[in-house]
Specification:
With 143 residues, the protein is an alpha+beta fold. It has a single domain, classed as Roll (Nuclear Transport Factor 2, Chain: A). It contains four helices and six strands. A six-stranded mixed beta sheet has the order 2-1-6-5-4-3. Helix 1 packs antiparallel against helix 2. 19% of the residues are buried. The model has no long low-confidence stretch (mean pLDDT 90).
């Protein structure tokens, strides 16, 4: 994992945001999402070749109306790939999550306001895993 450890306290605070993000994605906890996302956050992806952009409220509706990985007892595999903290109020977080058969990569930008790190943008994409990688995930041997 690439990181910027010049300020361990800020690094840990961003790791805490990442853990809440992983928990919210897996369980579908929209209250937890609302805690870590800024109300003006924007989310972007190219889903199935089509450009998608959402504000936080529409995104939370999508989350509320989907079948969660937790409810399917899906294997959980998430990871922080990198954290960079270029200034006292800006940070970048790159994470990945596996929700079979998809491997997601999320680029997350954070701002620190009033002493709290909040997500202001998320850009994500995914790849469809092949059967060999899916088997490795199910047996705990993937990445």
């Amino acid at each position: 994992m690439e990181n910027n450890m010049s300020n361990p306290k800020e690094f840990r605070a961003i790791l805490d945001v990442a853990q809440k993000y992983f928990d919210a994605i897996y369980t579908g906890d929209t209250n937890l999402f609302a805690e870590i996302f800024h109300e003006d956050a924007r989310l972007y992806c190219i889903g199935g070749g089509e450009y998608v952009t959402l504000g936080l409220k529409p995104y939370l509706e999508v989350v509320r109306n989907r079948i969660t990985p937790a409810s399917r007892n899906a294997p959980r595999q998430d990871a922080v790939l990198s954290i960079t903290i270029p200034t006292e109020t800006t940070a970048h977080l790159r994470v990945s999550e596996v929700f079979l058969p998809k491997l997601f990569t999320d680029e997350i930008t954070l701002l620190k306001q009033n002493g709290k790190w909040r997500i202001v943008s998320k850009v994500w994409d995914f790849e469809i895993l092949d059967n060999e990688d899916i088997l490795k995930i199910k047996t705990g041997e993937f990445r």
